Amino acid sequence: MAISDAQYDDWLADRAAKPAHIAEITHTSGAVSRVSVRSFRPADSQAAGQLWRSRLKNLSIEWGIDGGVGGYSELSVSRLKINNADRSLDGWRDDAITYITVKLGDESWPVSDFRTLISGKPKQVKVGKICEIELRGTEDKADTIKNISLTAALPGTMLQALLTTYGGFIAADLDTTRISQLDTDYPYTISAISGDFNVLSAADKILGGIPVDWGAGFDGKITIFELANAAGSSSYQDIRPVKVKEPVMKDPIWRVTLTGDFGADETTERAATQTSYPSAKEISLATHISSGSNRTALANKLLDLYNQPRDVVTLSTDKRYRFAVGDEVKSIFPGLGYDTGRYGIITHIDRGLALQQLEVRV
Question: Where are the alpha helices (DSSP H) in the chain?
């Protein structure tokens, strides 16, 4: 690409930039419909006669990670509204559309330099004067029941085997580097899985209790989103929101009980947390980790993660930050100790054409 990631990030922060949201809709016939907020023809599309027509009326893209406990697949969801006042799109149906890609870039750039925001198959299409399309991330492919047989393995290894053997994915569909990192971060053997399962449910069983979610990233590849405590690292981005909701405080956790198919439940606790925070909670989680010592190690990691109260802040910004779920940010706004900024981890993103709303765990 001519535009590097660093240059793209600089462009996102430039208020003089001319952003263009575009959507490419591929039909079963092989034809591609191209829509945007304003009609334009990128430089690299002129020779091919490709035109992006001004039909895109609204766009909402959501990504999320469970801010309570992880291991559950939360499907990314997008919604597009496309002008159909001339009724030329009346033939569009969910079974007539095979794939949709939404991208963001500058009007002066070739489309090859645009970055993908979301891609996947349509879940539902409603046709009227406005054509409304609900788009699920590529992880939706795994919403199928299979007779599964997986031998015991580390979580990243087992998840990749599940998705490539039973989920309809190939290795190129996966962020194998990030998924493999699970084996290092959580080196706990997962018990064998056998029987008829929805592939999504089997993935949840593999990751049960581990503070991660999995799903499609910006590029449509299946990846891992890990919940962590903010480190105040040099990699964060500052956010100066235009609107902030009252922060919601989440109580800490002092006792974790892990249950499963391995026999007796195991409980790990930190009484000091309960003494310091009388409102601290107990949680019980299902896990498929086979070793008792590994279950204890996981419980201690969870207690490290949740051993003090955390604010969950919902804020809106009109700047085009290049955020992803799991990124560390520094939120700066008046009051409640945020005047000079507090570090946090993004747990939810709801992005529109003009504003994006972020949920941050600080």
Answer: 5-12, 155-165, 176-185, 199-207, 271-276, 292-305
Which of 179, 176, 19 has the alpha carbon at shortest distance from 102? Answer: 19
> Side chain identity at 139, as an amino acid letter?
E
DSSP sequence for 107-128:
TTS-GGG-EEEEEEEEEEEE-S
Write a three-state SS string for 284-345. EEECCECCHHHHHHHHHHHHHHCCCCEEEEEEEECCCCCCCCCCEEEECCCCCCCCCCEEEE
Q: Are 104 and 117 in contact (CB under 8 A)?
A: yes
Q: Is-above-0.70 flag for pTM?
A: yes
In angstroms, rounded to a whole number, what is the distance separating the alpha carbons of residues 316 and 98? 33
Distance of alpha carbon 184 from alpha carbon 186, whole angstroms: 6
Average pLDDT of adjacent 10-residue blocks, the chain of 362 residues: 81 79 91 89 70 89 66 68 90 83 87 84 88 83 93 97 95 94 95 94 91 79 85 72 84 90 80 94 90 91 91 81 79 79 85 79 82
